[in-house]
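Here's what a typical entry looks like (branched-chain-amino-acid transaminase):
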Amino acid sequence: MDTYYVDGDYVDDEKAMISVKDIIVLRGFGIFDFMITYNKRPFYLNDHVRRFENSAMAIGLKLNYSGQEICEIVKRTIEKNPHHDESSVRIVHSGGVSLDGVTPEGNGILMVMVTPKKCPPAWWYQKGASIITVEMERCLPVAKSTNYLSAVFAQQQARKVGAVEAVYVDRSNRVLEGTTSNIFCFKGSTLITPSDDILDGITRKVVLNKIAGNFDLEMRDIDFSELMGMDEIFLSSSNKEILPVVRVNDMTIGSGEPGAGTKKIMQLFRDYTQAWGRGEVA
């Protein structure tokens, strides 16, 4: 059994409750963030909490805790789950109960859910994964809102064809991001990633700040027409880390196997996170 933090108390996961009148339930109005641990240390905790605060500001949600308080609650909740080898951590702040069922009144609650980390199938990384594209875009992409209607719909379409992720393409044919990931491409030795109208992914940030210096880098719009002609594609996210993509819709990317550039980034990211978990790097 896992221990969660809910509105001031640490409780067994089976006893974690929220009011059905909360507009996170009625309207999908709330925010969240997600991270994993390395060596039981929450990876880039301060960055995740800072993004959490930015998400609240973006949608007009009042937080009832400071960033420092949230960080301490996350650490304490992890400590209360010593049976995990590694953990997945989800921070959620609800919109609260509203008199008219719509208008936030600043009485939302904070929840921290810590569960055992689940590893994606090894073959995704050995052979590469398939993704699809969907003509859709998120509302307020800079915020991690709990309103995941577009993501859930897109993921359902992906699962129907055996794909592991769906990537949004907007009305201007720009390739944006996955439902829970950012996208990178290689054209030759140049690493390319979108920079506008996307969520500022923490794993993406690590790739850009700690790894991308090994490659030529272009941060720009990617037109859908370019995508199938890329030599390599990979996704980045907290739970998937660096995931090679070998098929988009019905088209094979590159050789149909994880490419050399992607493999190098996978190894560099693995080396970095392991060193980070040991406290050897910032």
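The domain at 122-277 is CATH 3.20.10.10 (D-amino Acid Aminotransferase; Chain A, domain 2).

More examples are in the samples folder.
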